[in-house]
């Protein structure tokens, strides 16, 4: 079976994978999640957080080769990690995530989408180096199809999201060209438009892309279904 490393998205942490890890374990895999710098239990000030630091954290967590899953914003650091240590990455799986385009930062990619559902909810910190989302907006934006209690749990754990990691591009070279890539689209996503998820993967082989009938947080909404898809991707 396979070894999975699970990487969260913006403002989240390893905590968001709590329901997926036991499902993967039940399928015979090993799986663990980490807090990127400035997230979860990592106390790096958001003003010091960088995309380079994110990628370093992913590489450092790869004690053995693994399938690396990145959610949402996590698509950028997992791609950069594969560039830096391709021998440690067996596969990249993008979960309703941004797949970096040459020369474009995540913020620039966001503006390429046909609409930007997240932008009206962003509240910048006074120093403009981070942002948050009001608690009142969490349900409709991230968790509207998730079990009761999800918003309360998330609100206790969400952090300030640093702006620097979303302001710089990832240079993609031949170093990671051989690393297999898969994508999981979320058809009811209210954060990254589903149409843009199609655009990012429109030239991928059909069997490299799966669509889930859920919103932006399948790790809470459908953890067993998500684990089954990861399992199938791992089997090749």
Automatic annotation (TrEMBL):
The name under which this protein is listed is: Pimeloyl-ACP methyl ester carboxylesterase
Instruction: Name the source organism.
Output: Lutimaribacter saemankumensis
Which regions span the lipid bilayer? none
An example of a Pfam family matching this protein is Abhydrolase_6
Alphabetized InterPro entries for the sequence: AB_hydrolase_1, AB_hydrolase_fold, MES/HNL
A molecular function annotated in GO for this UniProt entry is:
methyl indole-3-acetate esterase activity
**Segments forming domain AB hydrolase-1:** 4-228
């Amino acid at each position: 079976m396979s070894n999975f490393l699970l990487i969260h998205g913006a403002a989240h942490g390893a905590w968001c994978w709590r329901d997926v890890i036991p499902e993967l374990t039940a399928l015979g895999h090993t799986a663990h999640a980490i807090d990127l710098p400035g997230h979860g239990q990592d106390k790096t000030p958001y003003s010091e957080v960088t995309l380079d630091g994110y990628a370093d954290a992913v590489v450092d967590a790869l004690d053995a080769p693994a399938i690396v899953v990145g959610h949402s914003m996590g698509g950028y650091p997992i791609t950069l990690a594969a560039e830096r240590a391709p021998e440690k990455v067996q596969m990249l799986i993008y979960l309703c995530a941004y797949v970096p385009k040459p020369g474009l930062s995540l913020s620039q990619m966001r503006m390429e989408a046909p609409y930007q559902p997240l932008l009206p909810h962003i509240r910048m910190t006074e120093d403009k180096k981070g942002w948050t989302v009001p608690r009142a907006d969490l349900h409709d934006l991230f968790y509207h199809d998730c079990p009761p209690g999800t918003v309360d749990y998330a609100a206790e754990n969400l952090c300030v999201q640093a702006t620097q990691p979303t302001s710089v591009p990832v240079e993609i070279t031949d170093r990671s060209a051989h690393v297999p890539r898969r994508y999981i689209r979320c058809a009811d996503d209210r954060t990254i438009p589903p149409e843009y998820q199609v655009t990012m993967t429109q030239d991928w082989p059909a069997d490299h892309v799966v669509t889930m009938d859920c919103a932006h947080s399948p790790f809470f909404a459908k953890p067993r279904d998500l684990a089954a898809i990861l399992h199938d991707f791992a089997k090749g």
